[in-house]
Amino acid sequence: MVDVALEDVPSAKAQDKLRVLNWLRLQDKSFHFITMGAALTVLLILGGVIASLVIGSIPALSTFGFAFFTTEKWNPVTEQFGALAPIYGTLVTSAIAMVIAAPIGIGVAVFLTELCPVPLRRPIGVAIELLAGIPSIIYGIWGLFVLAPFLQKHVQPALIETFANVPVLSSLFAGPPYGIGILTAGFILAIMVLPFVASISRDVFETVPPVLKEAAYGCGCTTWEVIHAIVIPYARVGVIGGVMLGLGRALGETMAVTFVIGNAHRISESLLAPGTTISASIANEFTEAVGDLYTSSLIALGLILFVITFIILAIARYLLMRLDRQAGI
């Protein structure tokens, strides 16, 4: 009887161990299916958005054809619609925003990580990050009542006078100083995307191994040489990612741009003139759209914005892959 009892002890322990292993295996399989379901859900949602945009834009695209992308005219009364002016405004305002925000954001990140006194790093960093939490409509109200009058009185007249005799710039900065317009919208977007570029660049710069910078300083490099030759090349992929994130925010921004761009469906050579963007056009007119063709044209604008964003992100991804390949990663 004692022998039988002793033989049962190892088998009981083995069964307990087997039950634990089966429970762990079940947990792993459940976790695998849950995560896979989450990934598939994202793909299904994305596919549903694309399908709804394509289906909704078919009436407008079939009616106007390729002329929808090359026509500036937008007249709901005669049901003549063209997307060229919103496309132009979207690309130009986003370009202005990134030309302003990218170097300033990277400069702020360099200052916070390399030059700023340690006690001031956290307060300045928090202040910059708080800019990202301000609602876009607040930026729009501030831009309409503060920034636009300031530009109208002080900045735009100076630009018109300064570049009056310069061949190309005289056309870009011509006309009466409206205050609102494409340039003002670009300034607002630059302020809005600046926290994204600065915060991500700062986080990426902090990942640079200190031993690399110390070695460079030990070789006699100046602070500028360390930043230019060590910090920025090491973190270039993350910096480009931050700039692309800011560009994506600029392309899709709606309310702030709607307040200050002027909402005029026309293309002007001057950056001081009113214009419109895809997001602003949809926000202004979707609730007033009467008729299937009008609604379909606005949905087609949304499809165009989606395609533009996808193309820009694809180009950014390709550039990042080339950088990794050149670096031997």
Features:
329 residues, mainly alpha, MetI-like fold, 13 helices
Strand residue content = under 5%
Overall residue-averaged pLDDT value: 87
User: Helical content, roughly?
Assistant: over 70%
C-alpha geometry: flat
Keywords: Cell inner membrane, Cell membrane, Membrane, Phosphate transport, Transmembrane, Transmembrane helix, Transport
Subcellular location: Cell inner membrane; Cell membrane
Protein name: Phosphate transport system permease protein
Domain ABC transmembrane type-1: 87-316
Structure explained in plain terms:
The structure is a single chain. The relative contact order is 0.14. The protein starts with a helix and ends with a helix. It folds into two domains: 1-63; 67-326, MetI-like fold, CATH 1.10.3720. It contains 13 helices and no strands. The model has no long low-confidence stretch (mean pLDDT 87). It has 329 residues and is mostly helical. Helix 3 packs across helix 12 (278-285) and helix 5 crosses helix 7. One of its GO terms (biological process) is phosphate ion transport. GO terms for molecular function: phosphate transmembrane transporter activity. Pfam families: BPD_transp_1. One of its GO terms (cellular component) is plasma membrane. The chain crosses the membrane at residues 34-67, 87-112, 124-148, 180-200, 298-320.
List the helices and strands and how they pair.
Layout (H helix, E strand, L loop, with lengths): L1 H63 L2 H4 L13 H32 L2 H15 L3 H27 L6 H4 L9 H24 L4 H9 L4 H12 L1 H17 L2 H6 L17 H8 L6 H35 L3
How would you summarize this macromolecular structure in one to three sentences?
By secondary structure, this protein is mainly α. The protein has helices at 2-64, 67-70, 84-115, 118-132, 136-162, 169-172, 182-205, 210-218, 223-234, 236-252, 255-260, 278-285, 292-326. It starts with a helix and ends with a helix.
